[in-house]
Design goal:
three-stranded antiparallel sheet; 62% helix; mainly alpha; 993 residues; five-stranded parallel sheet
Length: 993
């Protein structure tokens, strides 16, 4: 990693005041100066006049001398060089006099026939601030705090405001410009080096592409770009950078690349494993940027299990000399596997100084955690940037093992389903260890130390019960206490639940609890292995609940989803938020419910199954179960409709959704609405899928999905949205309700359009038109024609596209849906562009944008600006085109619409190419690739790669351009897209060279 280079530090005498009031007053009137851009001066927030260019040159020369005196001769030379005017000395004195009047007394002083600037506060000059930030960065880097070092360098670079000493004449200013520009580049290289050390490879590619285009002979930038591309999985492009560099150096300077660059090329060719992860600093021991400490808190009343604690601790102690130490704990639910594993892990923390990872693999539930999802979470916890996390399970597992290499980390894999789920999550490196808990014995987990955890001994069980209830209450009723723990089957979870209930009821005696547990109607006739034994333990806690608590316990377990919010729970129970919170907190106290976060609650997966069984058995009348789920569906639909309405004012969908009887939330602003939608997506989508089995809820579930369409475009839950749409569509088709089937197909078509599967989306939209016409439901017809028009545009069927969009406009106008009309107008604008009708394309896009703006629809107004920006680009109006696209980009980012954010960056790259800003075009195209990762589909990726290749070719990076175009051709050929021919034409001269 390169050094953080500094220019000589500028020191000035500081000032002090006696009171805070004086400090504030001084800051309000303190002088400040800038030279990292135009030469400017401020007193507080007031900008001061600095005079003519020569006068600013004098001020700059004095500021850059760091308080030292400059003689008149030196100043004349600085301003005019070897050919000063005849009145140069008089002019210098005049400039100094004018500046002295503007600045504070005593700042510009005359001394020994010259001048100096003195008495400035610390931080008064932007260059001095940059020097201090660079020094802090170097100190942080040497201490191993790479994140802080990167932040400090970023702050230093942010002080530049264009060209240094902009508009200042004279040889001195020119020399300083060259010096400070070189320092800025060194700081940029140092920060980018840190970015790569921190795993931000994909993000760095965009900036490095632009920098290498601006400074083509700077080999260090080329080296960083090669490394960033390689670590981003773009090996061919990395090698192409080397080929471009070698050719350029030979043509321009007649030299070969320096040895470091050649060595990097060889290491890339050999797929050197050392390049896949950051290299450790040589001067200091390797410092892990992030040291995860994810272990749950150990229980303060941990009891017994001494033999198991000793056995497991001994295994973990051998981790340093073994490839990997793995212990797998097996036992029935409620036997205390997690409690024991967490306790042992905490005791062993000192042996694993590089951190501890923890995950609940949800193996006992209907949907166990996917290994690739867990690996993504682990990699982020270990400091890997989101953009650097690969997509496939195999790549994530390989990177995970690489990141752990050389570290001593303990991994606790709780509640595993089977060995297949666990294998990719094992570290596999010396010094690391894994603890696994599961309901099954993992005899097929090679090399694992297997531990079968049985129930507690009677003494251990009584000791645990006593710690929770209290020595005094148990001592007087020891026999009754033994009866209680025996009735619990000596299972730790059952004992904890029973003891917690007794501890919370001071009027109960232990004998009362024992009598309750002795009632066979309140527990299973006998304890059995597996779930039945666990169910018996839950029966104890459930039987002791108050009626309202028991009802809440039963009903809240009915809905699918990882957790539930307080507001949603209030809907399920049909109670106020205050009463609901009291009930939920009471359930938390009994260990039957967990508080996942403030205002959110979740069941342990086995407890949820038990709660549902209780609802099936005890909820009377049975219709109350359906009523509870119906209220929750109403709540979700009404709230999603409120989000949709605030994001799309004037859109008619909110008027044509299914009726609801239970209210949803209201929002004061767009940010609160968006936060709810994206936070609740993980609960909303599985619950909507669950409604596929409830015919009376099907229409509302489909409408919920349509109202929550932003989830599809965000990229965060796109796959889950598509899966939900498919499930609901199949259920609607089976139910034979054409209107619901049409709407479900519309959501599925939208998901496929977002993901780039245009043929599927078109077929579904075609079915929507037929079904919705028969059901006399015009809104899906509108949006289906709109979608088919866009798809036809993408596939080059412009006549079909124009016909569909004309139908869409007509139908939207019939409904009075102005935002829908605007959408179709903007899409029709793109058809006109594709067929050479540029003037009408601009007019249509502007009309659509103005409709959005008139409705106050900022997010969809960004779509209008996107369309208008494209039309203006093709008409040659590049400046307003860039303005409209930048306005759209800001809205899309604020709205968390990753698909449209990435596509807007792509369109900005097209504007840059038209304006011959090729380096900027390459940077925007690179950012588009990063944002669109995992969303938008391969066709859109091919489009971005094509534009990136054009930009790279224009700046002389023909090797990288060829790689981009070849990948684009492969994508288009795979999809059968006509764009392949045009890209082959771009490739032909490159291949022939």
């Amino acid at each position: 990693m390169g050094e953080v280079l500094r220019v000589p530090e500028q020191r000035r005498p500081g000032s002090s005041t006696d009171t805070a009031e004086k400090v504030e007053a001084a800051e309000a009137t303190a002088l400040r100066f800038s030279v990292l851009g135009p030469v400017r001066a401020w007193r507080g927030e007031e900008q001061l006049p600095t005079g003519s260019p020569q006068q600013r040159a004098l001020l700059a020369a004095l500021l850059l001398r760091e308080g030292r005196t400059a003689t008149a001769a030196e100043l004349i030379d600085a301003l005019w060089g070897e050919e000063p005017p005849s009145q140069a000395l008089a002019a210098v004195r005049t400039y100094a006099s004018r500046l002295r009047k503007v600045l504070d007394p005593g700042v510009l002083v005359s001394e020994s026939g010259g001048y100096a600037v003195r008495g400035l506060d610390d931080g008064a000059l932007d260059l001095a601030v940059a020097q201090e930030l660079a020094a802090q960065a170097e100190k942080a880097k040497n201490a191993g705090d790479l994140c802080h070092a990167c932040e400090m360098l970023g702050q230093a670079l942010a002080l530049w405001a264009g060209e240094v000493l902009a508009g200042v004449p004279g040889p001195y200013a020119e020399n300083q410009r060259v010096r400070l520009e070189e320092w800025r580049l060194q700081l940029q290289e140092a920060r980018l080096d840190l970015d790569l050390e921190l795993g931000c490879h994909a993000e760095a590619v965009s900036e490095l592409t632009a920098l290498t285009a601006a400074h083509p002979l700077r080999e260090r930038l080329r080296e960083l770009l090669m490394l960033a591309l390689y670590r981003s999985g773009r090996q061919a492009e990395a090698l192409a950078v080397y080929a471009d560099t070698r050719r350029l150096l030979a043509d321009e300077l007649g030299v070969d690349p320096r040895p470091g660059l050649s060595e990097l090329q060889q290491r890339i060719l050999q797929a050197d494993p050392g390049l896949a992860q950051p290299s450790a600093p040589v001067a200091e021991p390797a410092v892990v940027p992030v040291r995860p400490a994810q272990l749950p808190a150990t229980v303060p009343d941990f009891t017994g299990r001494a033999a198991f604690v000793s056995e497991l601790s001994d295994v973990l102690a051998t981790a340093e000399g073994r490839v990997m130490a793995v212990s797998a704990l097996a036992g029935i639910g409620g036997v205390g596997k997690t409690t024991l594993a967490v306790h042992v892990a905490h005791q062993a923390r000192s042996a694993f100084p590089d951190g501890q990872l923890y995950v609940d693999l949800q193996g006992a539930g209907p949907r166990a955690a996917e290994p690739e999802t867990v690996l993504g979470s682990f990699l982020r916890a270990l400091g890997t940037a989101d953009s650097a996390v690969p997509d496939s399970l195999e790549e994530r597992a390989a990177l995970y093992r690489s990141v752990l290499d050389g570290r001593r980390v303990l991994v606790l894999l709780d509640n595993a389903k089977d060995a297949a789920q666990v294998r990719p999550l094992l570290p596999g490196t010396e010094g690391c260890a894994a603890l696994v808990t599961s309901r099954v014995r993992m005899v097929d987990l090679a090399g694992a130390h297997l531990v079968d955890l049985d129930v507690m001994s009677p003494d251990e069980a009584l000791s645990l019960f006593t710690k929770i209830v209290g020595q005094e209450r148990v001592a007087s009723e020891r026999e009754a206490a033994l009866d209680v723990v025996a009735a619990c089957g000596f299972l730790p979870l059952a004992i904890r639940i029973a003891a917690s209930r007794l501890a919370a009821r001071r009027t109960w005696t232990v004998s009362v609890l024992a009598a309750k547990l002795g009632d066979e109607r309140r527990r299973l006739d006998e304890l059995q292995a597996g779930d039945l034994a666990v169910k018996a333990t839950f029966e104890l806690g459930y039987g002791a609940l108050e009626p309202a608590q028991a009802r809440a316990f039963r009903l809240l377990g009915l809905a699918d989803g990882p957790d539930i919010s307080l507001a949603a729970a209030s809907a399920v129970l049909d109670l106020s938020a205050e009463d609901t919170e009291d009930l939920l907190e009471a359930l938390v106290d009994t260990s039957l419910l967990e508080s996942a976060a403030p205002g959110r609650y979740r069941y342990h997966d086995l407890v949820r199954l038990y709660a549902r069984a209780c609802a099936e058995r005890d909820e009377q009348p049975p219709s109350e179960r359906d009523a509870a789920l119906s209220r929750l569906l109403d709540f979700y639909l009404a709230t999603a409709a409120a989000v949709y309405a605030i994001e799309r004012p004037g859109d008619r969908l909110v008027d044509q959704l299914a009726d609801t009887t239970h209210p949803g939330l209201t929002f004061e602003d767009r940010e609160g609405a968006r936060d709810w939608l994206y936070t609740e997506a993980n609960c909303l989508l599985p619950f909507a899928r669950q409604c596929a089995d409830r015919p009376r809820a099907l229409r509302r579930a489909v409408d919920l999905l349509w109202a929550a369409v932003d989830i599809s475009e965000s990229g965060a839950n796109s796959k889950e949205y598509e899966a939900t749409a498919r499930t609901l569509m199949k259920a609607a088709r089976q139910a034979g309700v054409e209107q619901v089937e049409a709407r479900a197909l519309m959501t599925l078509s939208h998901a496929h359009l977002d993901s780039g599967r245009f043929d599927m989306a078109d077929q579904e939209a075609e079915q929507v038109i037929s079904l919705a016409h028969r059901a006399d439901d015009l809104l899906p017809v509108c949006w289906a024609h709109n979608a088919r028009g866009v798809i036809a545009l993408y596939q080059g069927r412009n006549t079909d596209g124009e016909e569909h969009l004309s139908h869409a406009i007509s139908h939207f106008r019939t409904l009075g849906d102005r935002p829908g009309e605007a959408s179709a107008l903007c899409n029709l604008s793109r058809i006109h562009l594709a067929t050479g009708r540029t003037e009408s394309a601009v007019s249509l896009a502007r009309e659509g944008m103005e409709i959005y703006d008139a409705m106050g629809n900022s997010m969809r107004g960004a779509n209008g600006r996107y369309a208008l920006g494209m039309a203006l680009t093709q008409s040659g109006q590049l400046a307003p085109a860039a303005d409209r696209l930048l306005e759209a980009l800001e809205v899309f980012r604020d709205s968390r619409q990753r698909l449209w954010e990435g596509m807007t960056l792509f369109r900005l790259a097209e504007v840059d190419i038209a304006a011959r800003r090729y380096a900027q075009a390459a940077a925007n195209a690179e950012m588009a690739l990063t944002v669109l990762r995992g969303i938008g589909g391969e066709w859109r990726r091919g489009n971005v790669l094509t534009v990136l290749g054009r930009a790279l070719s224009a700046v002389g990076h023909t090797g990288r351009a060829r790689v981009c175009w070849e990948e684009a051709v492969a994508i288009y050929d795979e999809l059968g897209s006509p764009e392949a021919a045009a890209v082959r034409e771009l490739l032909a001269p490159v291949r022939a060279a």
